[in-house]
Design goal:
The complex is a heterodimer of chains A (254) and B (269).
Chain A (H helix, E strand, L loop, with lengths): L1 E9 L5 E10 L4 E5 L6 H8 L7 E6 L2 E2 L5 H9 L1 E4 L11 H6 L8 H5 L5 H13 L15 H14 L4 E5 L7 H18 L2 E5 L3 H7 L2 E6 L2 E7 L5 H8 L5 H4 L3
Parallel strand pairs in A: 3-8, 3-9, 6-7, 7-8
Antiparallel strand pairs in A: 1-2, 1-4, 4-5, 9-10
Helix pairs in contact in A: 5-6, 6-7
Chain B lengths: L2 E3 L5 E3 L5 H18 L9 H11 L8 H6 L5 H29 L7 H15 L3 H12 L3 H25 L4 H8 L4 H35 L7 H8 L4 H29 L1
Antiparallel strand pairs in B: 1-2
Helix pairs in contact in B: 2-11, 4-7, 4-9, 4-10, 5-7, 6-7, 7-9, 8-9, 9-11, 10-11
Classes of the chains: A alpha/beta (254), B mainly alpha (269).
Chain lengths: 254, 269
């Protein structure tokens, strides 16, 4: 469970990215966060694994208040939260397998991992994740030889290898073509359904958000302006989130 | 400054490219300095050059071609010394450069209180020419291979630390962010996100610097730093044929090193 209580984030330059967020996300939900660029979606997402720390308020992950934790405790928290990025964030010249294996690094002491040695169990786990994502046959290719969609699957396999409870996705399909986008979103849906992993994703495409997520959170100027099931999204709500109604081709990401 | 007007009447001006200022300054400096350099054509002695080249590449009076190439047999030991001190100096100097380069990289240590003093030390070391390092080393540890090794180590350290921190600064930091998001410590994130990007380039540089060092160490022997350079120094006034034979051997060895180096570095890309 993820719980925001009056969460405020002010950047050092004075920008108020989050202005009093109150939210509760239960285990196993598939939540899409929508809103304009600069509305605070990314800040909201990154405050959950403390890649950005909040200025005030409280943020609970499974009853642990995370705004004050640091060091080993913080790393233990992050271990349970996978993260997917718009530009995949893989080491391009490393093999797919080694990229996925880095999902296990945080489970071992720094000294052990410096030598690059992992237990067999971890290696098998990495291969299982690759099989789940349907790219086992690509394991020993260099990451940069894969297509964008395949690279995002490698990133998903890396996240799965962490054995996380939650996966955060920051614009996961924004740099993919329409066909690949659907495939990767299907992967998210499958992971959510088969493994019960909570998914929180920032999305640009409203139609994709409505199709895949069970719940939509609309953010405008650092505040939650809509929070409800994806079936409840209509034109009126989109006006609230985006400031004006969206034209047909703006809703459709395809 | 070029000004363009497009069909609808809008105009846009291309800004002045500052590279032209730099080129202008360099050219004027060349012209100014050339005025101070005295050039005396009568001092050029082409026939003498021919004589020396002939002396170098034919046996000395009273010696046969067998003697000429037989001399190469006496060169194996100094040659191996040269290669040894080049290799060891390159490896030791490169390894010493690694922690310095990490400390000097702005994207790893964001505080200027860390990278600024480190860079100052690095720049200072790089200003010393390899030859001077060798002279100093001979002064401190005496004539021999050890002083060559010390000179090459410091020389390598100077180049490698500079080249390496520039590589570290241009790596893709996005996987570092990803590693931190998995709960990895900063050291672990460096090991798995930065190191794999830097290591092949490091190896490539190491081989390239080794190539430079083989050439440099041949000259270092001239000031007493051991190896094949000492053979040239010992023979240069009286035994031009031996200098010639040594040069032929060095040419072959350096070409071999260059080809191998290019081959390996090609594979590392």
């Amino acid at each position: 469970m993820i719980k925001f209580i009056d969460v405020v984030k002010t950047y050092p330059n004075g920008t108020q990215a989050l202005r009093g967020i109150n939210l509760t996300i239960s285990d196993g939900e598939f939540v899409a966060i929508i809103g304009l660029s600069g509305a605070g979606k990314s800040t909201l997402l990154r405050s959950i694994n403390k890649m950005h720390s909040i200025t005030s308020g409280q943020l609970f992950i499974d009853d642990v208040e995370i705004s004050s934790i640091k060091g080993k405790e913080l790393r233990m928290l992050r271990r349970n939260i996978g993260m997917i990025f718009q530009s995949f964030n893989l080491v391009k010249r490393m093999s797919v397998f080694n990229n996925v294996l880095t999902g296990r690094v945080a489970y071992h002491s720094t000294l052990k991992t410096l030598l690059g040695l992992f237990p067999r169990k971890d290696k098998l786990l990495a291969l299982e994740s690759l099989e789940t994502m349907g790219i086992l046959d690509k394991s020993f290719q260099r990451a940069d030889q894969l297509s964008g969609g395949q690279q995002q699957r490698v990133a998903l396999a890396r996240a799965l290898t962490q054995e996380p409870k939650v996966i955060l996705a920051d614009e996961p399909v924004a740099s993919l073509d329409p066909i690949t986008t659907v495939q990767v979103m299907d992967d998210f849906a499958r992971i959510n359904r088969d493994y019960g992993i909570t998914i929180v994703a920032n999305m640009h495409h409203v139609d994709l958000a409505v199709k895949y997520a069970t719940r939509i959170i609309g953010i405008k100027d650092g505040e939650v302006v809509f929070d409800g099931p994806s079936s409840a999204i209509n034109d009126e709500m989109l006006v609230q989130i985006y400031g004006r109604s969206l034209k047909h081709d703006e809703v459709l990401g395809e | 400054m070029a000004k363009y007007t497009i069909e609808n009447g809008k105009t846009i001006t291309k800004p002045f490219n500052k590279v032209w200022i730099v080129i202008g300054i360099v050219l004027s400096l060349v012209i100014i300095f050339s005025y101070f350099i005295t050039f005396e054509p009568s001092l050029i002695n082409l026939p003498e050059l021919g004589v020396i080249i002939k002396k170098m590449f034919t046996p000395k009076a009273g010696r046969t071609w067998g003697d000429y190439f037989g001399f190469i047999n006496q060169l194996w030991e100094p040659l191996i010394s040269t290669l040894e001190m080049s290799l060891a100096g390159t490896v030791i100097g490169s390894l010493m450069a690694v922690p310095m380069a990490i400390l000097a990289a702005k994207n790893i240590f964001k505080s200027r209180f860390v990278y600024a003093p480190i860079r100052f030390i690095m720049n200072l070391i790089r200003t010393i020419p390899a030859m001077l390092l060798a002279v100093l080393a001979v002064y401190f540890v005496g004539i021999g291979v050890l002083s060559g090794l010390i000179a090459i180590t410091i020389f390598t350290f100077g180049i490698m630390s500079k080249m390496l921190y520039e590589v570290i600064e241009t790596v893709d930091m996005s996987p570092y962010e990803a590693l931190e998001s998995t709960g990895a410590s900063k050291t672990q994130a460096f090991r798995y996100a930065i190191f794999p990007q830097v290591f092949p380039v490091f190896l490539s540089y190491l081989i390239y610097i080794f190539e430079i060092n083989v050439r440099a160490s041949a000259i270092l022997g001239y000031v007493g730093a051991g190896g094949i350079g000492m053979v040239i120094k010992d023979n240069i006034l009286y035994n031009y044929d031996r200098v010639g034979a040594t040069l032929i051997l060095m040419l072959v060895v350096i070409l071999a090193v260059q080809f191998t180096s290019n081959y390996i570095r090609g594979k590392l890309q």
